[in-house]
Amino acid sequence: MTKLSSNKNNSEIILELKDVVKSYNSGGTVFTAIKGANLQIKKGEFVSITGPSGSGKSTLMHIIGLLDNPTSGQVLLEGKDISKLQEHQLANLRNKTLGFVFQQFNLLPKTSALENVTLPLIYSDIPSSKRNDLGIEMLTKVNLLDKLKNTPAQLSGGQQQRVAIARALINNPKIILADEPTGNLDSKSGDEIMEFFHHLNKDEGRTIVFVTHDPDLAKQATRMIVIKDGRIC
Ligand SMILES: Nc1ncnc2c1ncn2[C@@H]1O[C@H](COP(=O)(O)OP(=O)(O)O)[C@@H](O)[C@H]1O
Ligand SMILES: [Mg+2]
Fold first, then answer.
1. Domain span at residue 183?
2. Between 4 and 113, residue with greater pLDDT
3. The whole model's pTM is what?
């Protein structure tokens, strides 16, 4: 009985860091941005990460999101040690499991909302008509059906971030990672983004990890992680 329940708990861990260190070597000087991080995130958690500027939040998010490799330590996604995967397997896992949202939206400027949203499908086998249907479905979810053809410059900051969220959702990821997603938005647009994250978490069961400077937003999470000087407190 005890064994079963402990197995069940283990299987609920979707993302794990073990003794993760990340050092940067710039011009012969080594700077350690993450100094031994241990972290377990369970499926369905809604986690906030806060900490002073330069404390290592984005570095940690890049490692969690498989966008950067740790200098040492292990990253496990759904129990798989990602260092054991080949590049194409890693890209596949990243595409299917993780969706990213950035502070600066990172949309292609001369490209319509619909094309921005369908961009992650460009290397998939999905035919282009189906890609567009999926893109329209995602933009409908974020309430932007009337802006399919607009370029980022024709959208407000809040709308651009919603396009970025639709893009992050197009592969139906289990985990959404958001690095200061409301950092460039007014508080009303920021609140809308947070509400949408709550919906993705509560109603769709997605695991959310987000970085914020705003203590009120951080408190909305089911777990708050604080990072200072490269260490999880
Ligand atoms: N590519 C890089 N090369 C060298 N140093 C870096 C690099 N990226 C980040 N750093 C340094 O690592 C530290 C943490 O940065 P970052 O993770 O961006 O912090 P935060 O997101 O908390 O503001 C900072 O001191 C930053 O200057
Ligand atoms: Mg940062």
1. 44-69+96-232
2. 113
3. 0.93
